[in-house]
TrEMBL record:
This is Thioredoxin peroxidase. The active site is at residue 50. Keywords: Oxidoreductase. Thiol-specific peroxidase that catalyzes the reduction of hydrogen peroxide and organic hydroperoxides to water and alcohols, respectively. Plays a role in cell protection against oxidative stress by detoxifying peroxides. GO terms for cellular component: cytosol. Belongs to the peroxiredoxin family. AhpC/Prx1 subfamily. Residues 2-176 form the Thioredoxin domain. GO terms for biological process: cell redox homeostasis; cellular response to stress; hydrogen peroxide catabolic process; response to oxidative stress. InterPro entries: AhpC/TSA, Peroxiredoxin, Peroxiredoxin_AhpC-typ, Peroxiredoxin_C, Thioredoxin-like_sf, Thioredoxin_domain.
Amino acid sequence: MSLLGSQAPIFKAAAVINGGTVVVDFSLKQFLGKQEVIFFFYPKDFTFICPTELLSFQQYLSQFIERNVALVGCSTDTEETHCAWLNTPKTKGGIAGVTYPLVADTSKTIASNYGVLGGSWSYNDHNQLVCSGLPIAYRGTFLIDKEGIVRYVSINDLPLGRNIKEILRVVDMWQHVIQYGEVCPANWARGDQAIQTTSESISNYLTLNTEL
């Protein structure tokens, strides 16, 4: 079931912030009422596509900050592995220089609750728990508004890297809708003309989505 229009699942977990400081009880609740959040999952530290994505997010971090949007990453690796990766130079496959938070979903419950955990679990003939597939996170991207409601969901399979500029475009669309009460047509970009509607109809739609 998609989380779109629903409250984002709440969690507390260890995370690495500011490129190397570990906090044990990181939560997205700290952003409620203050900022929208781009919360994204990636499969694994020390892999191939993942560093290109995380470094690209860092490259555009100032543009997310300009829009008052918090950027938070998450994988099923441990916080120790996150720290090691953050302290590895880019030339050696690391992500040194990344400063936004990286959550450690070691229990895999966060990825599961957000609907992006790969693999499946079942019991064999000996009543033993077995896993089929890879129990790591797909490349899930979630835009969470200031009230904690999920407004955008995108999930890529493991070999498909994201376009960070497209995520910024989604943020721009959402903020335009909220600010002007207009809706954004196909291929809309910041500064383009949107479609006028009534602020009341937008408000009613968003309220209805929140209450469902």
